[in-house]
Amino acid sequence: MNQSAAIWSQPTPTDAAIASLVQDGRVHSRIYTDQRIFDLEMERIFHTSWIYIGHESEVPKAGDFQARMMGRTPVLMVRGRDQEVRVLINRCRHRAAAVVETESGNTKMLRCWYHGWVYDLTGALREVTEPGGYGPEFKFEDMGLSRVPRVASHRGFLFASLKHEGESLAEFLGGAAAQFDMLVDASPTGEIFLDAGVNKTEYQGNWKLVGMDGYHPNFVHASVVAGWARNAEAGIGAMHREDPFSDAALTLTRDFGHGHAMLDFRAQRLKSYSKHAAFLAKVPGGTQYVEDMHKAYGKDRAEVLISLSGDPHLGVFPNLQLIGNQVRIIVPVAPGLTQVIMSMVRLGGVSDEINTMRVRQHESFYGPAGSGSPDDAEIFERVQRGMQAEFNPWIEISRGMHREYVDTDGSVVGRITDEVPQRGQMKFWLQLMTQPRD
Predict the structure, then answer these.
(1) N or C: which end of the chain has fewer CB within 10 A?
(2) How far apart are CA 155 and CA 67, in angstroms?
(3) At residue 303, what are phi and psi to the nearest 5 degrees?
C-alpha cells in the first residue's frame, strides 16, 4: 500500500492528510466527495464557526419562529414575548424529539409531541406530563431547551455559533461586514424585510460548489446574458448594458479573508446609472425612490446603491450569500447533496410597484422556472459526477493567481473571471479543518 492510500485508509483523516488536499492553485476532488471529509466539516466548520441563521424580519411578532440547521444541529430562531430573538436547539430535553416540525409559524408555546413536555418561548421548561414520576432531584430550571451558546446580529442578520468561545462576529465578518450595507441601504429607510416568499432548490452536489464565480455566466447562462444585452434599456438589462463578465469590464473579484468573497459590480454598474435611473422613472414610485435615496445618502453614495439595486453579490462563509434580490442559505445534507433556501427581499420605504418588480426579476432568474438557477444546479451535478473519477483528481483554481493584488482595504482582488473567491474559500476551509482543537 502506498503512503497516500495508507493515510486515507484511516477512519478519520489526519490533519496532514487533509492539508495534502489543498495546494497552490488546485484542490483535490476528495474534499467534495469523501464522507469522512464531510463529517469533519460538520464538526469543525458548521459546529464551531459563526453560521447564518436568519434575518430578524422573518420573526416580526412574539411567537414567530423559523426552523433552520447548523450543520446537523436543528435549531429554532424564535422571538419571545420580550421581543428578544433567541436561537434554541430544536431537541426536547427528554427523549430528543424535534419540538417543532414545521418550517415556520407562530406559537404561544413549544410542545414536544412525543411525551407532551411544554416549553415557553425562551426555551424554559414549563410543564411535564405526570410530574409525579420524577423525584425531588428533577429541576425544571435545568431542563429547558438548550440555547446556542453565542448569538450576534449584524444589520438584522442573525448569526450563531455552537462554540462557547471564539472570535466575535465583527472579527469574523471583517471587511465583508460593510458589504451588507449595499443590500440594506438599497432602502432609503435602511430597512429590509424577508417576507416576500421563499423558494428552494436541491442538487446532487457538494455545498462548496455554490461559490462566487464570475467565470461561468457567459457560458452557463449564455442565453440569459444575450437577453440582457438585447433588453439593455430596461430593468436588470440596464445594469448589463456592457458585458460585466469580461476581463475588459470594471467588475472585480474580492477575497475579504475568512472565506468571504464578492463579485464587485460597483464600478461597472455605476457606468450605467443614468440608464437604470431612466428605467426606474417609468416604474410607479421610481422617481420618488431616487429622490429619497439622494436625500438619505447623498448623491455619490445614492448612485452607487441605486446602480447595484441591493445586490452586493457577497458570499459569507460557510452558508450565506447576498445575491440579486435574495438572501440565500446553503444547507449541506451529504457530500453529494445540498439544499439552497432563497428568501426574496422587500425594501422598506419604496412603492409596492418597485418591490413587485424586484420580485418578478428574482423569479425570472432564480425561481423554479427561472432562466438561471436550474442551469447552476445542472452544472453542479455534472461537476459532482466528474469528481467521482480518481484518475487525475486535481481541480484547477489557479486562474488569475499571477495578477491578483491586495487592495487598500486589505482584500485580495482579481478580475471578474479570476478564481480569487475559490482560493480564498479553500484557504479558510483548510484553516478550520486543521486548526488546533480543544
Answers:
(1) C
(2) 21
(3) -65, -35
